[in-house]
Amino acid sequence: MKLFDIIQSASSNLWRNKGRTILTIVAIFIGAFTISLTSGVNAGVNDYIDKQINGVGGEDQLMISPSTQSMGMPNNEPQEYNPEGTSNSDGDYMTDKDMTTIRGMSNISKVEPFHFLATDYVQGPNDKRLVFSAASQSDIHIDLEAGRQVSANANDYEINLAPEFVKALGFSSAKDALNKKVTLAVSSQATGKQELIEATIVGVRNVSLVQQGQSITSKALSDKIVATNEEGLPDSMKNNYTMSFATMKKNLSDKQITALKDQLEDKGYGSMTVEDEIGMIRQVVNAITGVLTMFGAIALLAASFGIINTLYMSVQDRTREIGLMKAMGMSGFKVFLTFSIEALLIGFWGGLLGIGGAVTAGHFLNELAVSTFLDGLTGFTLIQFSVPSMVIIILVIMLIAFLAGTFPANRAARLDPINALRYE
Length: 424
What we know:
Elements: H1 3-14, H2 18-56, E1 61-65, H3 96-103, E2 108-114, E3 121-123, E4 129-130, E5 134-135, E6 144-147, E7 158-161, H4 174-177, E8 181-187, E9 194-205, E10 215-217, H5 219-229, E11 243-248, H6 254-266, E12 270-273, H7 274-317, H8 319-327, H9 332-371, H10 387-414, H11 417-422
Parallel strand pairs: 5-10, 7-9
Antiparallel strand pairs: 1-11, 1-12, 2-11, 3-4, 3-8, 6-9, 7-10, 8-9
Helix pairs in contact: 1-9, 2-7, 2-9, 2-10, 7-10, 9-10
């Protein structure tokens, strides 16, 4: 008896008692459905968190400030005054000397100061003047609803507009805002002289939980705003930064990143990765979906007992048939294989239907989420499925089914053909 014939026979035997088989498949369906849906939620939420991280600075970037206090880190110990200072920083600001110090540290490949861009207002087609918040961040992939990233060209005044400003400025949609002009009013901190700067909207951001309401400017526009803000100030008050973004070398280990943070702290700087800031959300999501996955695993465990029961009953019903096959020369291994394949088929169909049900439910849940509790969070797909994860789930379920089926399959393989033929 060839393998194909064994598979065909197992598939046929599986449906001799349809009620029993269907109930077992339903039990596996419940476990597969639960695990698939929770893994989809986990993938969707973590994907959105990754987008948020990339929009702030990415995994390879450190946010560095003059002291641990300004990073919001605990530092309850009184600090002794040091006229020399532990860093080049003056007070709550960083200077170009700090940039030079940080650039010279190991495992740092690039440092860019974070400019506070002070604008009076932004004005669009509807002539409304709105309070405006913007930042210039290079080497960051911004999650966009429409359009493209701001240009690195030194001459282009461009903006990735925050979604909150689209309709407020008079645009009907994100696509409608693309390539339209807005006017920024910027004043000198020293003289109060106001200058109007025209910029082009080249992209509209998706909603950001970390940088809500903040638009991103091109370097050229950022430099222009900073120059206008600092016009008339003494040199000692120019080029002062509240923080900087340092790009770490690629593929640093957690130990190396911790050592780098300690090195920065020794020099009087506070530092943290974006993952430090937003990682707690990821941990909570993973914990919740992990608990839900455990419920799915419990359902699969219960289903495995259903497989054992189903195949044991099948062995009992087909005892004389098994005896006849063995008497005609069928080996014990092929008998074992026949029942094992039946178990694999139960796992396969239960897993496939469970994943199919999860994908269908996920589609409707995503639509419901977008129109209700996730309304306004553009770029957030709550449930996401990937082919590799679905294949892994099916394979794991089939493995569980196979292991459960080994007990009755082994019993069938060990049957004595003479005693089996006498069975009533």
